[in-house]
């Protein structure tokens, strides 16, 4: 077994794979790529993923991209490693895990995408307040739904891939508040989700996976 994980700091899909590797306590080599340094645009990287996106994981002869395909592969290949399964064995719990991940990818992420692009990629004077306001409204609706999904400490039962997926997306979204207080994402997060974020942040492997460029210097 020789796993190499190609990551980039702050990418939610890459972060979910990183959390999965740590949850499973698998040995791996981390290749931290730089968006701004052009690492994803090289021909070498395109040979790993022709879409030129992170995450990518290699395990021996296998090269795999698409974050959830990677997490499912790790879970199938190393089911009982570390803290155990990220897609529960129980059929209903596994279906719920998959459904929640789909909801993160197909509803939450598109709802906040335009607002995040506005805030992260445009200088303050060029930002459109209407895009931010519309993003907040869509985010509020999404967060109300996810708030209702928290029946216990985590989304499904024990920690699953759904917790990792939702957390990474939400953590990036909260970062928008540092760039533009008009987003006030924190103000939209309900009490159950806020407590749940705290529980994810208290996981023993969390700190290790924290996006390096978010750390104060
Ligand atoms: N559906 C893909 C999405 C991957 C993705 O969009 N990655 C972004 C970072 S969040 C990326 O690498 N973008 C390339 C770039 O910005 O140059 C997955 O889940 O792995």
Structural class call reads alpha+beta
The description of the largest β-sheet is: 4 strands, mixed
- Our count of helices gives 8
DSSP, total strands: 4
What can you see in these coordinates?
The protein is built from eight helices and four strands; from the N terminus they run E-H-E-H-E-E-H-H-H-H-H-H. Helix 1 links the parallel strand 1 and strand 2 (28-33). It has two domains: 3-77, Glutaredoxin; 91-207, Glutathione S-transferase Yfyf (Class Pi), Chain A, domain 2, CATH 1.20.1050. Helices cover 52% and strands 9% of the residues. The protein is of the alpha+beta class. The protein has helices at residues 12-23, 43-48, 67-77, 91-121, 129-147, 161-179, 191-201, 206-209; strands at residues 3-8, 28-33, 56-59, 62-65. The relative contact order is 0.14. The structure holds glutathione.
List the helices and strands and how they pair.
Elements: E1 3-8, H1 12-23, E2 28-33, H2 43-48, E3 56-59, E4 62-65, H3 67-77, H4 91-121, H5 129-147, H6 161-179, H7 191-201, H8 206-209
Bound molecules: glutathione (GSH).
